[in-house]
Design brief:
heterodimer, A: 52 residues, alpha+beta, B: 314 residues, mainly alpha, Tetracycline Repressor, domain 2
């Protein structure tokens, strides 16, 4: 019989993890926006000027 | 068919570590107060530099410099967790208080160091990124791991790490290191010893307890105060160089000279302070003034640039 160990979070740990996850999600969105904006500004109109 | 059995383990048991750290605890690892000075001086270096940078790219550059500075702060807290737990000033930091583990802080610091350097290089240029990488290594390895616990010159040499941000900002715009950016570097570099030794004077017991050889603990308060006075005079002289060299106007020159005289005055009052003075008020006042001095000097560089633009535009 295989055994799976499960960990039960305390209320404080669950709340902290949720907070960290939200912060991480926001940072990820900010990172994507940042990369997009920097790419457009750096490359500018040449963004479509590429060899096919 | 496999049969499984769930075994519940309480997360409070000693062999399971589950973090209770909040996002704010990670932010605290970045030393936000130090970061504010870094952001400000880097922004001034970037704004007063000759040449054009897209405003958004400029903000990204400052963000990268701030993250890089924060990353080196996290690496510093990772390495210094043992002594931070002893000193009153640092014992509530995230690692000694048990909110974040050492390995979490190490991973966080390395990750942000790599990210900030690469992103700065891609957004601006690789000279600026190279200086940022050097700054992080200098602070985390040269200062924190080596100098801090081995020589009373620790913060003199280590002060270079805090002096690089305006040079990085300048390099982000110009792609070069010039005499002007070296002067901005020198102002912070020479300002650091009186600033930190003022703190070391009234926190001498803390540093003594953890065996960090700060200047007052090694050569005594008297000799430290003489050196502080020398550095304060040098800071005041270098502080007016932007006007002397022509990259700041007369308004900056007058204000920086007055601020420099103030810095010398407060350092002189600390020099006059009796060694058995328990309240250490002059040293505390100098510490407070020194922070104000640096903000005012760099703030005045900005105002002066604004004045020059307005006058030049008339």
């Amino acid at each position: 019989m295989a055994e799976i160990e499960r960990v039960e979070l305390t209320e404080k740990q669950a709340k902290a993890r949720k907070g960290r996850s939200i912060a991480l999600a926001l940072l990820l969105v900010a990172f994507v926006v940042l990369v997009y904006a920097v790419t457009v500004i750096k490359i500018g109109p040449d963004i479509l000027n590429r060899s096919l | 068919m496999a049969v499984t059995q769930n075994i519940e383990i309480k997360s409070s048991s000693s062999d399971v570590h589950l973090s209770e750290a909040l996002a704010g605890d990670y932010f605290e690892l970045l030393k936000p107060r130090v970061m504010s000075l870094v952001v400000f001086t880097a922004a001034v270096g970037l704004i007063v530099a000759p040449g054009y940078i897209n405003p958004f790219i400029g903000m990204v550059a400052i963000l990268c410099i701030a993250i890089g500075a924060g990353a080196s702060g996290a690496l510093n807290m990772w390495y210094d967790a043992d002594i931070d737990a002893v000193m009153t000033r640092t014992r509530k930091r995230p690692i000694p208080s048990g909110r974040i583990t050492k390995s979490e802080a190490l991973g966080f610091g390395i990750g942000l160091s790599v990210f900030s350097t690469i992103f700065l290089g891609l957004a601006t240029n690789w000279l600026a990124a190279g200086i940022l990488a050097f700054t992080i290594v200098f602070y985390a390895v040269i200062y924190t791991m080596w100098l801090k616990r081995s020589t009373p010159q620790n913060i003199v040499i280590g002060g270079a790490a805090g002096a690089f941000p305006p040079m990085i900002g300048w390099a982000a715009v110009t792609g070069t290191v010039t005499i002007e950016s070296i002067v901005l570097f020198a102002i912070i570099f020479l300002w650091t010893p009186p600033h930190f030794w003022a703190l070391a004077l009234f926190k001498e017991g803390d540093y003594e307890a953890v065996g960090v050889p700060m200047m007052p603990n090694v050569v005594g308060a008297r000799k430290t105060k003489i050196q502080m006075l020398v550095y304060a005079v040098l800071t005041a002289i270098v502080g007016v160089l932007p006007t002397a060299l022509g990259f700041a106007g007369l308004a900056y020159g007058i204000v920086s000279a007055a601020l420099g005289l103030g810095f010398i005055w407060y350092t002189f009052k600390t020099y006059q302070m009796r060694d058995d003075d328990e309240t250490m008020k002059p040293a505390k006042k100098l510490f407070g003034y020194s922070i104000l001095y640096l903000f005012a000097i760099f703030g005045m560089l900005l105002i002066d640039r604004g004045i020059m633009l307005v006058v030049g535009g008339l």
